[in-house]
Amino acid sequence: MRKAIGLCVLAAATVFGQNQNIDLSAWDKFASKAKESSVVTLTPETLGLATSVLTDDSGDGKQLKDVIAKLKGVTIRTYEFAEKGAYTKADVEAVRKQLGGPGWTKFMEVKDGEEQVEMWLHKSANGSGGLTILAAEPRQLTFVQIDGPPDLASLMRASKLLKGGGLDGVLSDKGSPSKKKSSRDEDNEEDN
Amino acid sequence: MNEFQREEELLRQGLRRREPRDGFANRVLARLDEPKRSAPVAQASWWSWIMAPAMAAVLIAVLGLGALQYQRVGRERQQRAKAEQALGQFARAMEITASKLELAQTRVFRTRGQQ
Amino acid sequence: MADEQVGDVTAKAASGDRDAFAALIRRNQAMVYSLAWHSLGDEGLAEELSQDVFLELHRALPGLESEAHVTNWLRRVTMHRCIDQARRRKSRPQVALDDVSEPAAESAGNPDFYLRSRLQTLIGSMPERARSVLLLRYQEDMEPTEIAGVLGLPVNTVKSQLHRSLAMLRDKLQRTRVTA
Lengths: 192, 115, 180
Prior knowledge:
The complex is a heterotrimer of chains A (192), B (115) and C (180). By secondary structure, chain A is an alpha+beta fold.
């Protein structure tokens, strides 16, 4: 399936497009309504900074460096709500309507009951491009934009390498404040 | 209280929260920083009042260098912490992206299965 | 503490205020440490894992917008780390509930105290996922839908896991004879 998605991406139209910065201010109100949210904005500088702590000693660290090196920016907004109905179709449309201009191609749309996932490809005049995902689920709303070659296989690989938040295998040791310095206590009897 | 409620209460008591050893927060913060470096201090002796101006000059130079060194190390520490923060955010971004790609994949399969 | 003050602490911690971050740690350390301790059964490991979780929180703070998000984040990351750690540790035997034998439980002391100790032993011997579900339910008072969100499981799986675990625990505890 991922190969099929990948092929769709390669075969997508290569119409040169305009600015792909999407205005997400319509979703600012969800910050206080959502029970959980994540907001990630990574610029080229921040991405470069992130690679500076990756080790070349492990294959995983090198792979991650290669993936990140190709990216020019990452924007994520995801909101998880306690109840359905926390957002409206208009909230989704406020973002979707920005995706349909020149340079944008929707290469996938899946609707299943109350869930809808759309994937878009965008390409700009200087040849750069990226991938955008808009996912509307009953209790979750997500926007993902990745600027850079839309290499889905690399992104999935990066996700696997970093799964569960474990950075220990890919961080270089040099000057690390988060490497374990404290030694474990000996086992004590249980407290009770 | 019926039997089931009593069992649940037992579970709640048995699994109640417990505090870590005193000073936990400080131990976490300590791992974010390096121990402070102490600047070298000149030894005082009975003739130091004669040598005071020269000693003072040396002391100032040494302290100054030590302070610069400490500042440099401090900046490097901060930079490292920021870099790890950026990587952590990238990890979160990839986690979310992968979850949405998988969502699309499972929905496609489900839709195909229903056709 | 009023909501706006609580929200302030998160924002301040995210912008590098050490005191604010220390306050966040103190406010959440019992939750994180307890989840780790009940999962791993080892004070040293629980301390180490808990420290790691807060260090990771420090990295992730810019992406979290309120203390409620911080709490949910901490629960999710702590449980995933505990599950990973428990799987890596082969020293702690993974015994199915059925296999945990009951001692001849004769105690002149407080029967509830003994029962709680026994309970902790039984829970510590459960498979990671079953233990995680119980912890989030009875330590954190979370509903099955919330537990499903934290652990990334279907809600029905959480419910059936709870049901099975409780039945097993009930059976084991009832077979524990206590004489006062």
